Amino acid sequence: MTETTNKAPITKFGKLLQTNQLAKIGEILVLGGVYIVSSFGEEVIYRAFLINRISELGKETKKASIIAVILSSIIFGLIHYD
C-alpha cells in the first residue's frame, strides 16, 4: 500500500530556494547597497566636508568657494589616480 503525502506543488519561489538563486539575488542586492552607500559617503566627504572647510579658510567669500571646489576636485582626483 502506498502512502499519499500532502505536499504542496513547488512554486517559482520554491524553485528559487532550491537552486540558491535567491541567495545570488541577495548578494547582488547587498553589493548594490554597498556601492550606493560608499558612493554617497565619498560624495559627502569630498563635497560637503572639504569644500566647506577650505572655503572657511578664505572667510567664505565667492573666490574662496571657487578655490575650494577646485582644490577638492584635485584632491579627489589624486586619491583616485591609479
Task: Describe this structure as you would to a colleague.
- 76% of the residues lie in helices and 0% in strands.
- The chain has helices spanning 12-18, 21-57, 62-79.
- It starts with 11 loop residues before the first helix and ends with a helix.
- It has 82 residues and is mainly α.
- The chain contains 3 helices and no strands.
Helicity level: over 70%
Please write the string of helix (H) and strand (E) elements: HHH
Number of domains: 1
Low-confidence runs: none
User: In one word, what is the shape?
Assistant: rod-shaped
Q: What is Rg? A: 26 Å
- Termini separation: 72 Å
DSSP strand tally: 0
Percent of residues in beta strands: under 5%
Q: Give the biggest beta sheet.
A: none
Q: Count of DSSP helices?
A: 3
Give me the secondary-structure category: mainly alpha
Mean pLDDT, as a whole number?
A: 78
Q: Strands, helices and their partners?
A:
Blueprint: H1 12-18, H2 21-57, H3 62-79
Descriptive labels:
82 residues, mainly alpha, 3 helices, 0% strand, rod-shaped
Short summary of the structure?
By secondary structure, this protein is an all-alpha fold. Helices cover 76% and strands 0% of the residues.
